[in-house]
Amino acid sequence: MISKRRTPLLALAGLLLITGVIAFTSSSGVAVSWPFGRTKCVRVYYDRSKTPDSYWMGRTYALFTQNLLGHFPEWQQIVSPIELYQAGEIETCDATIYLGSYFENAIPQAFYDDFAKTKKRVAWVGYSVWKYEPKTLERLFGHEYVDLTTLDTKTLDKQGQPTFFREVIYKGETFYKFGESVKLDPTLWESETEFRAGFEQTRLKLSQDVEQRKGVEVLAYSRHNGTGETIPYAVRKENRFYFADMPFSFMHESDRMLVFADVLFDILNEKPR
Predict the structure, then answer these.
(1) How confident is the model at residue 52 (pLDDT cuts 50, 70, 90)?
(2) Per-residue b/e over 183-220, b at no fewer than 16 CB within 10 Å?
(3) Is 271 buried (19+), middle (13-18) or exposed (0-12) by CB count in 10 A?
(4) pLDDT of residue 198
(5) Which residues have C-beta within 8 Å of that of residue 78, sequence separation ≥ 6?
(6) Residue from 230, 236, 256, 254 nearest 245 by CA
(7) What is the mean pLDDT of residues 22-40?
(8) Is residue 56 within 8 Å of residue 109, measured between CB atoms?
(9) How many CA atoms lie within 13 Å of 153's alpha carbon, on the beta-carbon side?
(10) pLDDT band at 38 (very low <50, low <70, confident <90, very high)
(11) Which partner for 167 in 73, 78, 137, 223 could form a disulfide, CB atoms 3.0-4.6 Å apart?
């Protein structure tokens, strides 16, 4: 997950873009006939932002998601910027995924409203979920919004690097986020360094309202590699899913992106193959 304040490091971009994915890009919500015998559709929305010419990461994350969706050839993909969302579009497909990668993006109110009331299977990934009223957010996910996590520069790891919620625990396995200091100008012997990592994520805590907690599952936890504190990373309540960061940001071959890839079966209500 990135904000307009940061430039991410992309790993595996070439690998994930080698495989072609067939998809329709829709910006108007016009009905599309499914080719090749496809009977189901999934909508993928990404952040284009107010400056689409300078912000290209949202579309890139959508491509990564499309690549994973290619595992389900019977699902037609409809991909569009969230800024172009029209009221009622969520209801036109079996599932919807929103990839929130641009900090404080201007998401249409119609999307907030439709996401909150739909009975379809929907997933929210990353930023801006906190814009819901607290009671609404608790109803949707059974959790309260606390804040965004930050990089811990006081608690260092064994290599002297800052720590953060680096480990994602899922189904008994631990996945590790990328994080290391990088020279800003590697051609110089001495130069300033920058710690690059997907360290920022939404911090949630379970609702104090017993009724709102009913049916809530914490699918994965994030663990701080300095203090050992754990917080929810991926949660589900009935037909709604939430991921606390952008799984494709600073990803690598043993990253939490694999958690998203596995949960994708549940988002689409598909059985393992």
Answers:
(1) low
(2) eeeeeeeeeeeeebbbbbbbbbebbeeeebeeebebbb
(3) exposed
(4) 92
(5) 23, 24, 25, 26, 32, 41, 42, 43, 44, 93
(6) 256
(7) 52
(8) no
(9) 5
(10) low
(11) 223
Residue 72 neighbours by CB under 8 Å, 6+ apart:
268, 270
Nearest to 64 by CA among 126, 115, 6, 10: 10
Residue type, 15: L
Which pTM value belongs to this model?
Answer: 0.86
- CA dist 232 and 222 (Å) reads 6
Q: Is 184 left (phi over 0), alpha (psi -120 to 50) or beta?
A: alpha
State the amino acid at position 273 in one-letter form: R
Q: How far apart are CA 260 and CA 33, in angstroms?
A: 28
Say if strands 121-126 and 240-243 run parallel, antiparallel, or are unpaired: parallel
Task: Please state, in angstroms and rounded to a whole number, the distance separating the CA atoms of residues 242 and 235.
Answer: 5
3-state secondary structure of 197: strand
pLDDT reported for residue 186: 73
